[in-house]
Amino acid sequence: MVRLNLVLPMDKIMPIISGFEAIGMIRTYEKKNQLTPVPIIGMYRHGFIATRTDFLEAGANDFLARPIRRDDLMDAIDGLLSERNEGAKCRYKSFY
Predict the structure, then answer these.
(1) What is the pTM of this model?
(2) Which H or E element spans position 10?
(3) Alpha carbon 96 to chain centroid distance?
(4) Residues 56, 62, 80, 17: is their CA dihedral positive or negative?
(5) Which residues make Cβ contacts (< 8 Å) with residue 60, sequence separation at least 6?
(6) Is position 23 within any domain?
(7) Which uninterrupted H or E stretch holds 63?
(8) Is residue 29 part of a domain?
(9) What is the C-alpha separation between 21 and 25, in angstroms, rounded?
(10) Where, per the database record, does this protein carry 4-aspartylphosphate (predicted)?
(11) N or C: fewer beta carbons within 10 Å in the chain?
(12) How many whole angstroms separate alpha carbon 77 and alpha carbon 31?
């Protein structure tokens, strides 16, 4: 069975906790329960290097700066899901 799980979006600023805190909680839960890490894409309105580095250090697998271009989003999703699911892609015609 192929699982196509993905956490998106994970923004730096969210209403209750930051995206960094949420990512940390997800990664802690995965480790505690010996789960395969779910791919997480971080997003923020600025594409500053520090923000990208902060997301990756927090445990995100990739980062996209907003405004997000559809092709960049699809490439990020395809890359992460392909790595996780032995080459399976997530290119649905409804996204186009």
Answers:
(1) 0.73
(2) strand 7-11
(3) 20
(4) positive
(5) 10, 19, 23, 40, 41, 42
(6) yes
(7) strand 62-65
(8) yes
(9) 6
(10) 11
(11) N
(12) 23
pLDDT bin (cut points 50, 70, 90) of residue 27 is: very high
| Total tally of structural domains belonging to the chain | 1
In the numeric block, the tokens 């997301």 are attached to: 55
- The CATH number linked to 68 is 3.40.50.2300
pLDDT at 31 over 90: yes
Has residue 96 been placed in a domain?
A: no
Residue 75: band (very low, low, confident or very high) from pLDDT cuts 50, 70, 90: confident
Omega of the bond leading into 37 within 30 degrees of 0 (cis) = no
Query: What CA–CA distance (Å, rounded) separates 70 from 36?
Result: 27
Examine residue 55 and state whether it is found in any structural domain, yes or no: yes
Alpha helices (H) in the chain, listed in sequence order? 19-32, 49-58, 70-84
For residues 20 and 32, give the distance between their C-alpha atoms in angstroms, rounded to a whole number.
18
How many Å apart are CA 18 and CA 10, to the nearest integer? 9
Whole-angstrom Cα distance, residue 34 to residue 13?
28
